[in-house]
Design a protein that fits this description.
The complex is a heterodimer of chains A (417) and B (193). In chain A, helix 1 runs parallel beside helix 7. Helix content of chain A is 42%, strand content 17%. Chain A is an alpha/beta fold. The C terminus of chain A is likely disordered. Chain A is globular, with a radius of gyration of 22 Å. Helices cover 40% and strands 19% of the residues of chain B. Chain B is of the alpha/beta class and 193 residues long. Chain B has one domain: Pyruvate-ferredoxin oxidoreductase, PFOR, domain III (Pyruvate-ferredoxin Oxidoreductase, domain 3, 3-Layer(aba) Sandwich), CATH 3.40.920. The chains are: A alpha/beta (417), B alpha/beta (193). At the A-B interface, strand 8 and helix 10 of A face helix 1 and strand 2 of B.
């Protein structure tokens, strides 16, 4: 059914259609609307049987999800930013134990400085945690990916994060097509766990593993993600067949035939990029787009195949490996190693900085002419940066950086008197 | 694509206004995208929300920087921020005030523009009268429907019924209908003048 609704509400409805049995949640912006809506559905009896557990922290949220999943329940939670960091130890445990938990990450920057707005630093910080990570481009895709995620997680017995841009998607009202319960039931069978804690047949889950077996257990986690590279496109194809929509998959190209310059990105910024590329195509530029849906597992082969015929590429990412440059860009470069392709990185949109079409037009033209440095910071205010650097040169007691920059920009008075 | 920016203060239903506008456009079979500005939302603090309306799928995710229309829910913002920033040459402005555009000293703004696209509406009073609360968002949406013709009053009423129920819905519908007629009457005055 077509509906004009908030991204968070659409995701909550999709999760409810997947018949979760345990939802545990701790509120954190911009994820809160999702679990609030699910909480209401459980309370009203619309979503039943399902236990909604308010916990005291994100660490508890993931711990409860682990317990529920180990006991054979379909478990769901959602978080963002510092919340994801706070649960990090349990995040690794969930994947190490091979428990198919589905978690929405409403992508948000990580402090300090504290910032509630969107970038991809949070889920990317858990890159090596063993969780799969799928990134949604639109609210429709966010909704659809949750349905695919439960199926994928449970087939492999591995947890998965569905990543959607905080505020930009979670708080956006737009048109979504919400499937029927029958459609979802036909796609997603009941949870049949590979391992389960059952008092009738006692086992333990989570043995201490020494040097004699640890590498094998870790390798098997890697092997499962390699299996996911095959399963993700299959599930997306089956989804298209049953729901009539293109959603998910590993990567998606746009206007890439004959493209000499390729732009690579994840998440909702792909929309703005596609609009920019359409305008540039109208002017005769040979430019295309590669959207990466599956960040983990990373589809090295598919990325290589999508880029092999271009002359140069630019990875535009909402993340920064401090002291290195791009995070996504590193993986993309790995995919094309040995090809001699020219690659550039643009770090953009950190902490919710808007990524306007006008800036992209300029950036893409520079990439096309190969005039970019290896790493660019889109729309960085160099005056503010240089002023602070100068201040640090002038005085050892230059003070707190965030407060200084805000003061320079006239946003708040950071000093008294 | 038609792009609207709504200015107001936290607590005035600014984000709700943009969302309801998107619902109204959806009811007409169009694509619409509403989203808040990503600033801190505190009661009384300046708040901005956006709505895009199009006949095609909307992929753009940047904030609305060159709006076709601006709805201002709180006239005290005029002294605080540049609410008219980026307004298109042929853009519409609807301002919540019992004073006229000229009385508010906005004559300069209209110079070289189509004055009939600038209108004020006593929306807070309409909210108080029909809903019992000083929330100007719904009357302004109906006034915007009359001023710009971008959406129909019936669609605004559908959006009201989706958002509210019972007495609150009825009060909002009455406020919307009166607001629509008031703006329509002003437009007729201009046409006859």
């Amino acid at each position: 059914m077509l509906k004009q609704t908030e991204g968070s509400k659409a995701v909550a409805e999709a999760v409810a259609l997947c018949r979760p049995e345990v939802i545990c949640a701790y509120p954190i912006s911009p994820q809160t609307h999702i679990v609030e809506a699910l909480g209401e559905m459980v309370k009203s009896g619309e979503l039943t049987p399902c236990e909604f557990i308010n916990v005291e922290s994100e660490f508890a949220a993931m711990s409860v999800a682990i317990g529920a999943s180990a006991a054979g329940a379909r478990a769901y939670t959602a978080t963002a930013s510092q919340g994801l960091l706070f649960m990090a130890e349990a995040v690794y445990n969930a994947s190490g134990l091979g428990l198919p938990i589905v978690m929405t990450v409403a992508n948000r920057a990580i402090g300090a400085p504290i910032n509630i707005w969107n970038d991809h630093s949070d889920s990317l910080s858990q890159r090596d945690s063993g969780w799969m990570q799928l990134f949604a481009e639109t609210n429709q895709e966010a909704l659809d990916l949750h349905i695919q995620a439960f199926r994928l997680a449970e087939e492999l017995s591995m947890p998965i994060m569905v990543c959607m841009d905080g505020f930009i998607l979670t708080h956006a009202f737009e048109r979504v097509d919400i499937p029927s319960q029958q459609q979802v039931d036909a796609y997603l069978p009941p949870f049949d766990p590979r391992q389960v804690l059952d008092p009738a047949e006692p086992v333990s889950i989570g043995a201490m593993v020494g040097p004699e077996a640890f590498m094998e257990v870790r390798y098997l986690a890697h092997a499962k993600q390699m299996q996911a590279l095959e399963l993700i496109p299959q599930l997306a194809a089956e989804f298209r067949e049953k729901f009539g929509r293109e959603s998910g998959g590993l990567v998606r190209s746009y206007r890439a035939d004959d493209a000499e310059t390729m732009i690579i990105a994840m998440g909702s910024v792909l929309g703005t990029i596609k609009d920019t590329v359409d305008e540039m195509r109208d002017e005769g530029h040979r430019i295309g787009v590669l959207g990466i849906t599956s960040y983990r597992p990373f589809p090295l082969e598919q990325v290589r195949a999508a880029l092999i015929h271009c002359k140069r590429f630019l990875v535009l990412e909402k993340s920064l490996a401090v002291g290195m440059g791009g995070i996504l860009a590193t993986d993309v470069r790995m995919a094309v190693s040995g090809t001699g392709l020219k690659g550039y990185t643009a770090v953009a949109g950190l902490g919710g900085r808007p990524i306007p079409k006008s800036s992209l037009h300029k950036l893409f033209r520079q990439a096309e002419k190969e005039e970019l440095p290896p790493v660019t910071f889109l729309d960085l205010d160099w005056d503010a940066v240089n002023k602070q650097l100068e201040r640090e040169r002038q005085s050892r007691h230059s003070g707190p950086i965030a407060e200084n920059i805000l003061h320079d920009k006239g946003i708040v008075s950071a000093k008294f008197g | 694509m038609f792009e609207v920016r709504v200015h107001g203060r936290g607590g005035q239903g600014v984000v709700t206004a943009a969302e309801m506008l998107s619902v109204a456009a959806f009811e007409e079979g169009r694509h619409a995208q509403a989203f808040p500005s990503f600033g801190s939302e505190r009661t009384g603090a300046p708040v901005v929300a956006f709505c895009r309306i199009s006949d095609k799928e909307i992929r753009l995710r940047e904030p609305v920087m060159e709006p076709d229309a601006i709805i201002i829910q709180d006239p005290t913002l005029l002294h605080q921020i540049d609410v008219f920033a980026g307004l298109k040459q042929d853009g519409y402005v609807l301002l919540n005030s019992r004073h006229s555009i000229e009385e508010l000293g906005l004559g300069e703004l209209i110079k070289g523009r189509n004055a009939e696209r600038f209108c004020t509406l006593s929306a807070t009073e309409l909210g108080l009268k029909h809903v019992g609360r000083p929330i100007p968002n719904v009357p302004l949406l109906a006034g915007f429907a009359a001023l710009s013709g971008t959406i129909k009053l019936e669609s605004v009423i559908k959006a009201i019924n989706e958002k509210f129920s019972g007495k609150v819905a009825l009060g909002n519908i009455a406020a919307a209908e009166e607001a629509y007629l008031l703006v329509q009457a002003k437009m007729k005055e201009w046409a006859d003048a």
